[in-house]
């Protein structure tokens, strides 16, 4: 494929399509990936907690987030996985000075809410409110712990505006970025 990037990070807020994009990139390039959200879900399950309960634990005990983020940082530094997907993956690659392409997938709040509704159900009002609350809590936590906000463009080599384009178009843009076109 002509692509020789040691690492690619894909980041975006929930509902932005990062998992769909990573799935397409894995299929296209036959690369390995790791998903920070899956690491989070696995740890919640290991502890016998629901996702909301585990989220509350992370809020009250920063060491839990720090442990999970350390897994991502070590993965970024390692050689086994080409694509790391997480809200902070781009930041970790940037701060670790790892040669990488760091993509932020930007999607407006209404489109993210519509995508969450199609995946999980709910009404636009409740999903918008839940998303806003989650982002506020998470962003405050990241600011307190690490002094950063996930969508700050400083950490990213590319920002893909995906609010009004299809998943296939997002994948096409990402492939062009990775192939240097």
Total number of domains? 1
Q: How many angstroms does the end-to-end distance come to?
A: 12 Å
CATH class: Alpha Beta
CATH level 3 topology: Rossmann fold
Q: Which sequence of strands runs across the widest sheet?
A: 2-3-1-4-5
**Whole-number mean pLDDT:** 92
Structural class: alpha/beta
Index terms:
alpha/beta, five-stranded parallel beta sheet, 181 residues, Rossmann fold, 8 helices
Would you mind describing this structure in some detail?
This protein has about 180 residues and is α/β, with parallel strands linked by helices. The chain has a single domain, classed as P-loop containing nucleotide triphosphate hydrolases (Rossmann fold, 3-Layer(aba) Sandwich), CATH 3.40.50.300. About 55% of the residues lie in helices and about 10% in strands. The protein contains 8 helices and 5 strands; from the N terminus they run βαβαααβαβααβα. A 5-stranded parallel beta sheet has the order 2-3-1-4-5, with helices on both faces. Helix 1 crosses helix 8, helix 3 crosses helix 4 and helix 6 crosses helix 7. The radius of gyration is 16 Å and the shape is globular. The model has no long low-confidence stretch (mean pLDDT about 90).
Please outline the helices and strands:
Blueprint: E1 8-11, H1 18-29, E2 33-35, H2 36-46, H3 51-60, H4 62-77, E3 83-85, H5 89-95, E4 101-106, H6 109-120, H7 124-146, E5 158-161, H8 167-178
Parallel strand pairs: 1-3, 1-4, 2-3, 4-5
Helix pairs in contact: 1-8, 3-4, 6-7
